[in-house]
Amino acid sequence: MTREQHSVLAPEAPRADGTAPPVAPPVRARLSAALRRHRRWLVPLLVALLLAQMAVAMVTTAVRQTPTIDEPVYVATATDYLREHRVYYNPEHPPLGKLVIMAGIAVADPHYDTSYHADQGRVGSRLLYASGNDPWRLMLWARLPVIALTLLFGLVVHAFAREAAGTAGGLVALAGYAFSPDVIAHGSLATLDVPSAGFVLTSAWLVWRARRRPRLYLPLAGAALGAALATKMNTLAALPVLMLPAVLAVGPRAGADRRRALVRGLAAAAVVAAAAVAVVWVSYLAVDPRLRFAPADPVPVVHGLRGRLAGLLPFPRAYRDGMLVQFSLEDRPWQGYLFGRLYTGSLWYYLPAALLVKTPLGMLALWAAGTVAVLRVRRLRPAAPYVLLPPAVLLAAAMTGSRDFGTRYAVFVPMFLAVAAACPLAVRRRWARVVTGALVLFVAVSSVRTFPYYLPYSNEAFGGPAKTRLRLHDSNVDWGQDLGRLADRLADRYPGERVWLVYKGSGVPAYYGIHAADPRRAPLSEVHGLLVVSDSSAAKARGRLAELIGSSRPVDDVGHSITIYRR
To answer: What is the mean pLDDT of the chain?
Structure first.
């Protein structure tokens, strides 16, 4: 044995003064100490990496997708805000989310024809395709502010979970958020679903923080809640839900007078409500300081309790009238599609069923385990009113709606439950960390595999993105996002062939070089060549279109949202 080997293996001799030599710390202790030393930069690095991959996924998606059905309306309305400073189009949604989109529109600086008057859908189409603007460039700039906001909400998820479940919990929650296909899909669009849900989440987190510093965080929580109300009206259900945590945040304290605690609680709720109402007013004032309201289309008359309640809201007239528009939309007989069934009206279980299809399996397991942990682990129970109650109430409210159009109406669920997914780490067992890590990895793999087709994502139990069209429709699968990809596919694989097109979306096929006829308007014997059908149209096909599809054979798929048949 060499001298070096002997010095490593042999025990150190006693010192000259008779004292024992220092004992080397165990390997695990040394590793723990090293992790503590490097935590200052390791955790921020992991946060940055998770958000960076999410940013890449969203920007790549935004660059390659053509306008979805709702986006041209929001982009045109934001452009009208910028140029005309008025609330004229799209009164059914408050202005804040469109003001966010307007930040990108201001950079793009599109040409806008103020003399053109039509419904909001046609105005959006004209802005994109008939005003000399580049729709690719304009849509990218409109989407970038929403992408940035989505990334900021990721920081809220991380901070919320870290405070509730520790440093590792914060990273687990952020990973669940950053790899969520639904959040990536809708966070990369110039729409209002992710901004409104993110503002509600931010408000819940700030109310959570108000338990220690109520004077600072309660007004901020009210402002965040007001931002949600000023983005989409369906977040009104969150207003009473967040009042209860606001009351809990300030009392009662041990030994405190009950009457005084009640007064403090009511004052806290009033602060949150007042701040929320103020933000709604400010959002309208930002568009038009004179608060003029002359909508492009007549405001419907809604009788009964709903109409009276809308008139009592402490918001500008444009907000109240916009709510009447929403009520009239709810009264329409919309068609839905779920698990191969086409129906008129709505199904109360539609959103839970759609979430079951479109949520990664690993995330479903983490949500279930996290919910149980929040309710069973004593130190986590105080988080239940902040983490579990808001999404539960918002989901219950959304389930009563008449428009079964997609999980975007419940995108707050993956955002809130990403925080809950961190809570199994509070179970101080080695297996809990191993299982949680394995599930997070499963979620990441499932999400990365669907790149860049996040909108039609479904989990492995339901066949993946290629099979989503068999079970769901509309913004779950096909929202008009793949018209540009279709143009490329036809040019690459089917040049010169006759094309018959049934497209569901807001894009203009001719702009992308697609010259096609509508097969529903031609005699059946003349429809030969390529039959191209949006999957949402195929799901709802009846009569002539169903006969055309039934007598054709599928030969290609574009983005898992458009099917090419050959006749």
So the answer is: 92
Which distant-in-sequence residues (6+ apart) come within 8 Å of 490 by Cβ?
497, 499, 514, 530, 532
Rounded CA gap, 360 and 339, in Å?
A: 18
Beta strands in 290-360 (DSSP E): 335-338, 341-344
- pLDDT one-digit tens code per residue, 287-310: 999 999 989 899 999 988 999 999
Summarize pLDDT for 37-77 with one digit per residue, the tens: 666 788 999 999 999 999 999 999 999 999 999 999 999 99
What's the start-to-end Cα distance of the chain, in Å?
Answer: 83
Report CA torsion sign: 302, 305, 306, 312: positive
Q: Residues with Cβ < 8 Å from 220, sequence gap 6 or more?
A: 206, 275
Gap between the Cα atoms of 502 and 484, Å rounded: 15
CB 266 within 8 A of CB 247: yes
Which residues lie below 8 Å from residue 544, measured CB to CB, with a gap of 6+?
Answer: 520, 524
- The CA-based angle 540-525-496, given to 5 degrees, is 85
Q: What 3-state class would DSSP assign to 524?
A: helix
Other Cβ atoms less than 10 A from the Cβ of 307: the count is 15
Name the nearest CA neighbour of 189 among 148, 158, 147, 240: 147
- Biggest CA–CA distance in the chain, Å, is 107
DSSP 18: S
Helix (H, G, I), strand (E, B) or coil at 500: strand
Give the distance, in angstroms, between the CA of residue 21 and the centroid of all CA atoms in the same chain: 60
Per-residue tokens: 129: 């395709």
Rounded to 5 degrees, what are φ and ψ at 517?
Answer: -110, 160
- What lies within 8 Å, CB to CB, of 157 at 6+ separation is 173, 174, 177, 201, 415, 418, 419
**Cα Rg for the chain, rounded, in angstroms?**
27
